[in-house]
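Teaching assistant here, posting this on the class forum so everyone can see the example we discussed in section. The complex has two components, and the goal was to see what a joint structure prediction looks like when all of them are supplied at once.
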Amino acid sequence: GAVVSQHPSWVICKSGTSVKIECRSLDFQATTMFWYRQFPKQSLMLMATSNEGSKATYEQGVEKDKFLINHASLTLSTLTVTSAHPEDSSFYICSARTGDYQPQHFGDGTRLSIL
Amino acid sequence: AQSVAQPEDQVNVAEGNPLTVKCTYSVSGNPYLFWYVQYPNRGLQFLLKYITGDNLVKGSYGFEAEFNKSQTSFHLKKPSALVSDSALYFCAVRDWWDNFNKFYFGSGTKLNVKP
């Protein structure tokens, strides 16, 4: 149980393109999902907390207009990287929790490469 | 402020030997502690958690961790390492008071198990 699916797993696109990443909880409902960014050989950096039916809460230093987050249902959150540039290239990971005191369950990540 | 420290970037151990991956934490209130493992180009997989109760927690794949409140530590252990245990390990902490289940991750420790 507690499976989180993330799609796509790998995307390569041209600079200036907008890219959407989906995060789905397959067998549970997630009122809260999280979006992380991971640089090579580094830890996860929390970008934002996504709450179903309300605006996401962004961490300090994360551009809201650059990284658009939508949590339209209890099983789906999306991250859109708008007008992506090479510096946005990274590994993006989503997670979701099944309950208040439960671990976060992670998707397999999306490798984003901007040319 | 909440934080997690993993003092070792890398741990090397021979197959069959016991392994320890160190983690210390700092939180304002009571800690919830977690260990995750990450394989290349994958998301994080949950190993074990400490919420309350016995200080020795058993988790997946034969791993266990010991919560030590006085030393604010939560070291990951396994009695006999396998080559397949080679991966990146992350310790994470959540403050009991944090309703949004925000996790703070350590910098990660690369475990190398040699045959």
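For the discussion questions: Chain B has a mean pLDDT of 92. The CA atoms of residues 32 and 39 of chain B lie 23 Å apart. Think about how each of these relates to the inputs above.
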